[in-house]
Description:
Helices cover 22% and strands 20% of the residues. By secondary structure, the chain is an alpha+beta fold. The strands form six sheets. Strands 2, 3, 4, 5, 14 and 15 form a six-stranded antiparallel β-sheet that branches. A five-stranded antiparallel β-sheet has the order 1-19-16-6-7. A two-stranded parallel sheet has the order 8-11. Helix 4 packs across helix 6.
Amino acid sequence: xxxxxxxxxxxxxxxxxxxxxxxxxxxxxxxxxxxxxxxxxxxxxxxxxxxxxxxxxxxxxxxxxxxxxxxxxxxxxxxxxxxxxxxxxxxxxxxxxxxxxxxxxxxxxxxxxxxxxxxxxxxxxxxxxxxxxxxxxxxxxxxxxxxxxxxxxxxxxxxxxxxxxxxxxxxxxxxxxxxxxxxxxxxxxxxxxxxxxxxxxxxxxxxxxxxxxxxxxxxxxxxxxxxxxxxxxxxxxxxxxxxxxxxxxxxxxxxxxxxxxxxxxxxxxxxxxxxxxxxxxxxxxxxxxxxxxxxxxxxxxxxxxxxxxxxxxxxxxxxxxxxxxxxxxxxxxxxxxxxxxxxxxxxxxxxxxxxxxxxxxxxxxxxxxxxxxxxxxxxxxxxxxxxxxxxxxxxxxxxxxxxxxxxxxxxxxxxxxxxxxxxxxxxxxxxxxxxxxxxxxxxxxxxxxxxxxxxxxxxxxxxxxxxxxxxxxxxxxxxxxxxxxxxxxxxxx
Length: 493
């Protein structure tokens, strides 16, 4: 145990560590197992072999963006990325930008489709589209991030298929759906709903005063949350056959029916800049921000600590000579601090140790939500860390229809390589500075913003490493940024 603790502390001081059936394959792709998880850069960049080589160069750290003349991203979205300064072999960030069609499932038995003409597209298919942007910050390998970048939007699509009719119907959502026709086939010679089936309950009208009112918005949030869980399950199932390594933070933005749904699991972040105002659309999930959740789980299931960790937090490590003294502590129920008498169990290594970016769960990982990490263990032990990590995102909603947006209003998504060295106010300043130097109808202006955010966070290579304009240390991490105009596709040509 002493050797493991020493190794863990050494890593901590050095700042190491991280900080059903699957959906069908994407349309038009014959992706085999290797294609799903092998190292690559986002397909929308359309990099040539020479550009790919430059993108993988840790010394030059060339910024990559979609090139003029190639396929433009939806909404004229801006994107830029740069590789790390040498902390990992490849850029472990991944990105995805898609427009996805959600097709309604075949009508369940006994249910009449609502709004027969609504949502019906060319070819007679009924459904709707959603726009999707996502960033995945990998750690301990890029396998989980690569798979999530190719699959998460498909899981979201799958979860939304049951909601096609419901979301397009202004009536309150039904509390209970009818039996699935595939599970309960109609008998030969029998209509879809025979008289002896009884009355079909109208769940749109509350029948009991205890029934909760569920909004359409909360259904979309639930679909996104479940999609993250199914994505994590797929990574767990296929991690051996696909040779998936590590895990990843995930930040996704879904535009559906006039609203943005921003889902975050990890330490990437998103902000909206509207008329100069900064609106946070996510928060970081770290050992410090989720201390009480982690401590509560360890309190309920002490076996997860492997008899080597304590769920209590102390201001510093306790020395054996301090047994019997009173020291400050806090447990899962406390926001403040109190004194307790030090006992033998308190000498164990704390579940959460370190401060700020160096805070770690079990001296190993610096993020507490994300995808993957199913094989992650405490160094030189058999203690699994995955039970403490949640794959469920926090989803925040922004209703675009409630405001009149101008071309300078944007949603910025960035991995922690951006936010580690640049705060919200500085990001907003760069956005406004760059946008004012381009015409409002110039579709390249958002790409230029993304590039400038990446360049300023990376800094310039000097004798003492990558430095910012104020000579502070620049970001040595992978940096990926989306800049999405809030005016949508109708406002820009």
